[in-house]
Amino acid sequence: MRSYEPRDEGEAAGLVREAAARGERLRLVGGDTKARLGRPAQDEATLSAAALSGITLYEPAEMVVGARAGTPLAEVQALLATRGQMLPFEPMDHRRLLGSAGEPTFGAVAAVNNSGPRRINAGAARDSLIGVRFVNGRGEAIKSGGRVMKNVTGLDLVKLMAGSWGTLGLLTEVTFKVLPVQERVSTLVFTGLDDARAVEALAAALGSPFELTGAAHLPAGIGAPEARTLMRVEGFSDSIAYRLGELTRLLKRFGAPEVSDEPGLWESVRDVHPFAAGEGAVWRISTAPMRGPALAAEIARGLQARWYYDWGGGLIWLETSAAGDAGAAVIRAAVKGQGGHATLVRAPDAVRAAVPVFEPLAEPLMRVSLGIKAAHDPAGVLNPGRMYAGV
């Protein structure tokens, strides 16, 4: 299989034009850490952004950073750390869960809208993404957005590219807003709550004025013998002490919590470490937070499964057997009844080829998606079928 590694945006545009002219289907990659996520590749060549590397913009006072798409994410994060700043949305590292190697890249963060536990407070990656450069399927170099947040009339290409999984264009450069790193991070830990009670506690905390930046529940057996309900607060030490005290008083009906400063606790939640060592299928299910426990219970009536919650109950990470359809029929029926969507994050190639990986779209939405794909990639050469057949 041929592999292309353009050294600049112009070369990338030329390669895409040539591929479109001969109908050569391209698999777009950065660090290739998510090759096992999505439908199996239906490509004839690889187009890599790895050589499109380097930080192009950093203005600490304006809290803006930009880099070429192939820049290692760790390089950007290290630069931000020197000035006490960070990416607000806490991007997940998929390598341990998917058993992949390589280095996550800055462009891939935008391409898959990679967002972790802090999403409940800071929003998703797309909410901090303010500028992109990309090459569409016609081989045209496109720039959208800039260095500041703006109101947009018409089609917002910045937000459109976030989470498009390379099906609309090869990102060549991305720009994000950043935030200061907080002085202290602490987690209030309640033990022994069942799922429904835990989500009730998380909802009460999230509805308070004490600003949680993480809200997760790990049932018994997920990383510890007892169930743990986690509430993260960040800020200045004096503020943290006050908010922990107020939260403890507000939530006294749920028990007496402990305060943890355990390093790696939220990294484990973010990167799905509880399911990383297994060989089962892993699903990522989004729903209304208060419906999370009912949805998990409905799935458990039809499948043997393990799960835990992030985003106050609105995100369920669920592990089940990878045999057959990996539980797709039961999970999608439950999601349809409760509301939400489910993504198959980890499963063998044969399962991902037979089962819709992303939540199936209603026919009107699929028509819109096909129209957008045709406008940006009329020859269908960019990551064909990565998300949906024909897209």
Describe the fold and architecture.
The chain has helices at 9-22, 73-82, 95-98, 106-111, 119-122, 125-128, 157-161, 195-206, 237-250, 265-270, 292-302, 328-338, 349-354, 363-376, and strands at 2-4, 26-29, 45-48, 55-59, 64-68, 85-86, 129-136, 141-145, 169-177, 179-180, 184-191, 212-218, 228-235, 258-260, 281-286, 305-310, 315-320, 341-346. The chain has 391 residues and is α+β, with helices and mostly antiparallel strands. It folds into 3 domains: 2-180, 2-Layer Sandwich (Uridine Diphospho-n-acetylenolpyruvylglucosamine Reductase, domain 3), CATH 3.30.465.10; 184-270, 2-Layer Sandwich (Alpha-Beta Plaits); 273-354, Alpha-Beta Plaits. The strands form 5 sheets. The chain has a 5-stranded antiparallel β-sheet. β7 (129-136) and β8 (141-145) form a beta hairpin. The radius of gyration is 21 Å and the shape is globular. It starts with a strand and ends in a 15-residue tail after the last helix. The model has no long low-confidence stretch (mean pLDDT 95). GO terms for molecular function: FAD binding; oxidoreductase activity. InterPro entries: FAD-bd_PCMH, FAD-bd_PCMH-like_sf, FAD-bd_PCMH_sub2, FAD-linked_Oxase-like_C, Oxid_FAD_bind_N.
